[in-house]
Every structure is written in C-alpha cells, then in structure tokens.
Amino acid sequence: MLQAEKSAKVPRCTLVGAGPGAADLLTLRAIRAIRAATVLLVDDLVSDEVLRWARKSARIVHVGKRGGCRSTPQEFIERLMIDEARKGERVVRLKGGDPFVFGRGGEEAEHLREAGIEVEVVNGITSGLAAATALGAPLTHRDHAHGVIFVTGHPRQGADALDWDQLGRTAAQGFTLVIYMGVAQAASIEAALLRTLPEGTPLAIVQHASQPQQRHAVATLGALRRTLEQERLGSPAVIVVGEVMRGLLALRDAPRREHAA
Ligand code: SAH
Predict the structure, then answer these.
(1) Which residues fall within 8 angstroms of residue 52, CB to CB, at 6 or more apart?
(2) Which residues contact residue 227 at a Cβ distance below 8 angstroms, ignoring those fewer than 6 apart?
(3) Catalytic residue among 9, 43, 95, 98
(4) Is a pLDDT exceeding 90 seen at residue 3?
(5) With 0-12 CB in 10 A as exposed, 13-18 as middle and 19+ as buried, what is 245?
(6) What is the mean pLDDT of residues 175-190?
(7) Active-site residue 181, yes or no?
(8) Which of 36, 44, 175, 259 is the most exposed place for a label (fewest CB within 10 A)?
(9) Domains of the chain by range and CATH?
(10) In angstroms, what CA-CA distances link 169 with 28, 57, 94, 173, 195?
(11) Is 208 in the pocket of ligand 1 (CB under 6 A)?
(12) If pLDDT is split at 50, 70 and 90, which confidence band does 2 have?
C-alpha cells in the first residue's frame, strides 16, 4: 500500500514524478498517489492532463511561475508541505519528470525528513529519456555509446562551474550527453563543447517532449545556437548530444542530398 493511502497519523508527504507531460506516461504508483492526495503542490512543468487524476475535492496549489508570477520561494513550498502534512492531509508534491533528476527533489526530501515528515518518492519518466524516445533515438545504442550522462546546463549559483572540457572529452569516448536547462546557455555550451568535440557532432533539441505541442530540431554542435534561434525553440527543452543522433541527422539531410543528385 502506498504511504499516501495509509493512515494519516504520521505526517507524510509523497514526492511524485509527473513524467514529461503525457498523462499516459505516468506510473500506476503515481496515479494512485495523485488520486489519494487531499493537497497537491504542483510545479510548472506538470501538465494539466496529469491533474485530471486528482480528486475534485483536492486542494491544488500551483507553485511555479504560472500566471506571470515569480516562482514561489522554495522555503514557502516546503513550509506548506510540512504544515499540511502535520494537519493530517495527504500531501503530494508533483514534479515534472522524475523528482530526483534535477528539480530539487533531493533538497525537499531532506528538509521534510528533518521536520519529522515521512517521505516517499515515486519515480517518473525523466524528460531526457522521453525526449530521445520521442524522436525514436536510443540514448545508448551499443554501436555508438557506452553510456549516457545527464547534466544540467545551469548549475546552481555558487556551485563549482561545470568542467565542460572534461565532459566533452568523456563524450568523445562514446557517451551521450543529455543536457537539461541548457537552452538559455546554449551559446556558451556550444563554445565550450567545441573545444573538445567536432563541429559536426550530431545533436537534437526537443521541446515539450511527449506533449501535443512537442517540437524538435536536429543539428550539429557547431549550429546549436543558430538552430535554436532559427527554429524558435525555447524552454523547457532537452539537448541530446552524441553519435546516437547521427541517424536522425542523416535523415534530416537525406532529401537535400537526393535533391542535389
Ligand atoms: N525533474 C525533471 C527536470 C527538472 S529541471 C525531469 O526529470 O525531467 C527542468 C528542465 O527539465 C527543463 O529546463 C528542461 O531542460 C527539462 N524538461 C522538463 N520537462 C520537459 C519536457 N516535457 N520536454 C523537454 N524538456 C523538459
């Protein structure tokens, strides 16, 4: 039985991965938690489609930037979760993708536990996975990649800067890079990776993966920033860099070659 469905005597909170957007990519466990919730705190990246599983009587609090407001301070969100859990509410914190892949799920879980709240975490399909699959590209095709690296293009302020040279050298050994939160820094990511990776390295940019408004572009590393601008691709998007995207690049260029022949 899910913790969210058990007696509400011990204050509990469930961090639920809402997946990349499409409601049928939710796990059964996520659906059960959402249906059991009396209070839901919902991030911006969670699609409305997912919220259809919530009870009509549930209190839904949007804590993202929706409605033009600045996003709700993290301390306020955590305070609300703690207070509601202590009142005996079944609190679900819905986060886009997977709660423990970026997006501060780890911090939230720590702070809740420190406050004596029992925390359960329900996995979701992270957008990096959904983005590649949406294009039919495997992240670790064994002809091209030994592994995959999930990386943020936007490290926390004050944190050590990411060593893009090291990352590029590792990618050159046959690792796919999946870059979250990279759109705003695309120009500097492109310049940094070009120090260690060839200009012609294939990549894909996928915006709103799995959602009806999904859009994507396939390009080379040397054309990352230009492609984002030309195709008007913006956040939320994932950038997937590596030889696993070579096939899609060839497909993109195929009609042109035929035409030229
Ligand atoms: N926990 C989330 C990531 C949160 S960080 C997950 O596992 O997916 C926010 C970043 O996730 C965005 O800047 C973007 O890079 C990525 N992202 C989230 N949802 C997305 C989607 N549907 N399509 C493409 N990228 C997405």
Answers:
(1) 23
(2) 205, 217, 219, 233
(3) 43
(4) no
(5) buried
(6) 96
(7) yes
(8) 259
(9) 11-122 (3.40.1010.10), 127-254 (3.30.950.10)
(10) 39, 53, 36, 7, 9
(11) yes
(12) low
